[in-house]
Amino acid sequence: MNPYAIRTHNLSKEYNGENILKKLNLQLERGRIHAIIGPSGVGKSVLLRLLNLLEEPTSGEIYFDGRALRENERLKLQRRMTLVFQKPVLFNTSVYENVAYGLRVRGENRRSIAEKVKKALEVVGLKDYEHKGARNLSGGEKQRVAIARAMVLAPEILFLDEPTSDLDPRNVAIIEELVKYINREFKTTIVLATHNMFQARRLAHQASFLFEGRIIESGNAREIFTSPKDRRILRFIEGKIIF
Amino acid sequence: MDYILAGLKEAFRLLFTLDRGTYTIIFLSLRISGTAVLLASCLGIPLGALVGLHKFPGRGVITTILNTCFALPTVVVGLFIYLFLSHRGPLGMLGLLYTPSAMITAQTILATPIIGALSLVAVKGVDPSITKSAISLGATKVQTTLTVLREARVAILAALIAGFGRVITEIGAAMIVGGNIKGTTRVMSTAIALETGKGKFEIALALGIILLAIAFLINAGLYYLQRVKE
Ligand SMILES: Nc1ncnc2c1ncn2[C@@H]1O[C@H](COP(=O)(O)OP(=O)(O)O)[C@@H](O)[C@H]1O
Ligand SMILES: [Mg+2]
């Protein structure tokens, strides 16, 4: 089996002629937590949307299990991964319906959906929330519903876009535990976009630094954090680059 | 003044004694306009969703046509359908002129652009991240569209109500293609015109009251939906 869940080759994205991502070559090992670190506005969210096939790159390729995307397999591939957005967008229905959504569209039967949803809500600590309206939850609860909604699908790859930005410390702790739990429990490859060094340090096995549209360093997380080769990462760690 | 008061009194009597003739007209109106709105939503909602959610050549043209037809003069629609259905017209052999079917056709044509254009606005009002979330969670194109429609359900219901309000009150097309035949094509609007012309204000007023009540309910409904949305 190919050791890389995802690999990109010269992946680039322009918006209105502006180069946001410039020829990224990423290698994301299967079953690991991979942090994409970089300042706000650098293109982390754009990168995750490209990897999740929600947008087309301007140029370059993405390989899943070493294979390029074939248009007739798009849906199948799409169903092996999912993205939790920076601002959780929940459907305007109950918590239950939100978490059940991905299973419903896959045509799973009612009983199995009910079981999985119940289990997932327990894991994210929202046991009795099934019938609540999703739109009325607090930010932290919404984010946990969004994670439960992704988790029930037991995806091979899970993209998390700054899952704890704007959350209180308690919810940050809950979500970080969840990230580790999902990776451990389902062997899910997790790609975590964050501008928070400390979070990356707490969670990630591997890290890539995104700076001015390029990957300036990539590799084992501990090594990068303790002895970065690129001076800019050091300045980043020391807090001299403002995020 | 007296005859207005007398008319009002008689109008309420007709309504409260469940006068057969009056209620035949009311139910016929509701049936014809209801059917037309049902058909128009089968056409208008998918059209609105298609144009609102997908990029394709001709999209701008369809939007413009929809918006133009929004204010289609009802008599003109009536005239065109008349030309098609009259015995010398291309569809004359169907014998549909002066039938409820002809009226339903006319009202469907009137309501479709309204429901289409408002559905378009409704789906465009849905956060684009909803679409992306649905796709990311594994929805097919059709499932994604249905999800967006579900998110827009309040605004789409408002579109249906607006379409209904337009057709149940219109008179031009109903008169031309329906012919105002008692018991089959005489609806509230045409009956009001006729009875007023004859000087029989009681029935006209009774129907006017119902029509106003419906218009009021429609607007109250729209107002309520607006509030729910916020
Ligand atoms: N759909 C879009 N259209 C135009 N510009 C975009 C779009 N999405 C993102 N951008 C731009 O790309 C840059 C990177 O954005 P983003 O990926 O959101 O950064 P972050 O690293 O904070 O997640 C920003 O300058 C943003 O304005
Ligand atoms: Mg972002």
Summarize the structure in words:
- Chain A is an alpha/beta fold.
- Chain A has two domains: 1-80 and 156-243, P-loop containing nucleotide triphosphate hydrolases (Rossmann fold, 3-Layer(aba) Sandwich); 91-154, no CATH class.
- Chain A has nine helices and eleven strands.
- In chain A, strands 7-8-9-4-10-11 form a six-stranded mixed β-sheet, with helices on both faces. In chain A, strands 1, 2, 3, 5 and 6 form a five-stranded antiparallel β-sheet that branches.
- In chain A, helix 4 (110-123) crosses helix 5 (139-151) and helix 5 packs parallel to helix 6.
- Chain A is globular and about 50 Å long.
- The N and C termini of chain A lie far apart (38 Å).
- Chain B is an all-alpha fold and 230 residues long.
- Chain B has one domain: MetI-like fold (Orthogonal Bundle), CATH 1.10.3720.
- Chain B contains eleven helices and no strands.
- Chain B has helices at 2-16, 20-53, 59-69, 74-85, 100-124, 128-136, 141-151, 153-169, 172-178, 188-198, 201-229.
- The longest helix of chain B is centred in the first third of the chain and has 34 residues, at 20-53.
- The radius of gyration of chain B is 20 Å and the shape is globular.
- Bound molecules: adenosine-5'-diphosphate (ADP) and magnesium ion (MG).
- Magnesium ion is lined by residues 44-45, 86, 161-162 of chain A.
Largest sheet of chain B at a glance? Answer: none
Helix fraction bin of chain A: 25-40%
Structural class of chain B: mainly alpha
What's the domain count of chain B? 1
Number of helices of chain A: 9
Radius of gyration of chain A: 18 Å
- How large a portion of the residues of chain A is in β-strands, by DSSP E? 25-35%
Bound molecules: adenosine-5'-diphosphate, magnesium ion
- Measured as a percent range, the helix fraction of chain B is over 70%
Q: CATH first level of the largest domain in chain A: which class? A: Alpha Beta
How would you state the average pLDDT of chain B, rounded? 92
The CATH class of chain B turns out to be: Mainly Alpha
Question: What's the tally of helices of chain B?
Answer: 11
- End-to-end separation of chain A in angstroms reads 38 Å
